[in-house]
Amino acid sequence: MAVQFQDYYATLGVPKGADDATIKKAYRKLARENHPDVSKAPGAETKFKAISEAYEVLSDPAKRKRYDALGPDWKAGQGFNSPPPGGGQQFRNFYSKGGKGQQGSPFENFEGFRGMGGGESGFSDFFESLFGGAGFGGGPGGARSSSRRRPGPSKGQDHESELTISLEDACSGAVRSITMSAQNPDGSVAKNSFDVKLPRGTPDGARIRLAGKGGPAAPGGTPGDLFLRIHIAPHPIFKLSGRDLEESLDITPWEAVLGAEVEVKTLDSSARIRLKPGTQSGQKIRLKGKGMPGQKGEAEGDLYAVVRIVVPHTPTPVEEDLFKQLAQRSTFKPRP
Known about the structure:
By secondary structure, this protein is of the alpha+beta class. Helix content is 23%, strand content 22%. It folds into two domains: 8-77 and 88-94 and 104-145 and 156-232, Helix Hairpins, CATH 1.10.287.110; 243-329, Urease metallochaperone UreE, N-terminal domain (HSP40/DNAj peptide-binding domain, Sandwich). The protein has helices at 8-12, 20-34, 44-58, 61-70, 125-131, 167-172, 253-258, 317-329; strands at residues 116-117, 159-165, 174-183, 189-198, 207-210, 226-232, 239-241, 244-251, 260-265, 270-275, 284-287, 303-309. Helix 2 packs antiparallel against helix 3.
């Protein structure tokens, strides 16, 4: 698939010299407006993918530096050679230790890690270029081979790289198709396409082993393994903390004072909760079991709705008069 060059600054509507805070603010605003669960406008899903792709690059100092320097060519890979001094940091690469390879299904040895994270299902040309056109080269845009070879030519080298997924895919599980280039022992280059199965409740920082998907082996040997480190992209609505989720819940002053029944968004639908009279701003309301699913006997996470009391930016004459009456008649004193 041909990779279309995208002006990430134009996508987020920020100048080229924008700082991290400006980029993050623009991303959150656009992601919230165009998230498929929020916007029903035609093309919202496609625009959301482009927004997420732009943020993925511009929020990473190494990727942004390379993008600024090379423009349309910033994704190009350089085969399987070692990276030049100071280079090869478009991915945060890892190395696997030498040793006897294990046989079994491609998804054995799944290691869960807890972490902080926070997107949209499906991969754009950007992600194809990470795992396809750019390949697993040693230069910028590719992951390096292990520098330690196992004794003898019986098995190919192991490789390790990273895969960014949406919070929705992490919670529900998904299958992602990726394409990778690898150098054969005779020097030729082979392209390998395969599916990656993400288990339900995949945590941020998880490491998945795909047996036989690493470097090719010499005749008579077995291919190496591929290890993928999973990262969960920031979400425009929910904040991930371990297996718990947080979201902001805006309410009116009278709902806070009198109590009310309000609707809150969950990851897969919505739920109604009752606010008690006297609810305070910053108070957290827990929805048990509405966070990220657990794995291997772990309990599911919870969802916390964090209350934020908001007032009209431009009150109507009637609202302004009522607030004036309240100010004159109320004996409530929030400050000493």
